[in-house]
Amino acid sequence: MSEQYTTVEQRVSYGIGRQMGDQLTANPFDGIDMDAVVEGVRDALNGSPSAVETAALSAAYEEINARMQAKQAEQSKAASADGEAFLADNAKRDEVTVTASGMQYEVLVAGEGEKPSATATVRTHYHGTLIDGTVFDSSVDRGEPAEFPVNGVIAGWTEALQMMGVGSKWRLYLPYQLAYGEQGAGGAIGPYATLIFDVELIDIVG
Fold this sequence. Notes:
alpha+beta; Chitinase A, domain 3
């Protein structure tokens, strides 16, 4: 731990700067000029006039936003293409069944129990990954099953659960249209993401 900032004021000041840096990291753009950032903070604290006119600043924000959206669109396009290629190859495997919706599944354990309806509530264990193996959510890792209504989850899950008997364990391969769509779901699941789930239907609880 650095001893550079020893007073309360210094530490709080550093904390404010750190928060600003974290915000910029969370919403990054190419070409951040740290000297200009520092000057902007200094001018604001000193009550000095802005070094950049309002109209020029607005135009700059619009330009950066356009660049970021274009970059995100390219990344999303690449993710969509990667997912489509993965699913096309995966569908060729004998173990994989493809439904009319485009959902792919592989039966790991064939349960003989009752199949839930769309309005039922089920208890499951699941393990979710991206096609590169990155884990984004896992009740298995948490060591605690999850309960939810069949019609209250992503479309691929809703479809698959109604086909599974209690005791079944399936591996689902979901195109983005049956998962989190064009928007994604936060940091780990980006736009147009193809997802893989191991789903175990433990019980129907309601």
